[in-house]
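DM from R.C. (forwarded with permission)

"hey, sorry to bug you on a friday — could you get me a structure for this? deadline for the figure draft is monday and I only need the backbone to look sensible"
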Amino acid sequence: MKIIDFDPDEIISRTTKENHALTVGKFEKIQGFDLLIRSWVDIKRELIIIGDGPEYKTLKELIKSLNLDNKINLKNLMPRENILQELAKAKVFILSSIDDSGTQTALEALALNTPVLSTNVGCMDSIFPDEFLVKPNNQAMLKEFLDRYVDDIDFINQKSIFEYVLEEFYS
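My reply, with the result:
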């Protein structure tokens, strides 16, 4: 099934990896961004959340109340080409979704050689071993999962997952 409809090598060739984590989606409850923000307290890496929607103000206030203004940055939704570039630049992509939302973006990140840490939604359980998945909508488990992996993402090799995604979802 073709889901990856861009040339990953072309985007990767003009991109330099940066050191931040990234997530993308509508600012809605289903994305689990509130859980993600609450889970970021002990993480050193910067988090960029790209999107728009009704929860923007609530998320902004949550970031401020947790004193995470220096670590979490909300950015407005941008054209898809720019999002693909951002996915390629990110050190890690986080999918905190409570439901099936966002799995295509996770697949795009993997196609761009960006490691993914994900809730167990959509097709993620057919791509990742259980250790790289966390139960959706569970604050304590998400925090423990992210604390374990985000700052040490350089030591996690997802190369075989990158290759699998290209074989299965790109033609």
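R.C.: lifesaver. The chain has a mean pLDDT of 95.
me: no worries. The chain has one domain: 8-169.
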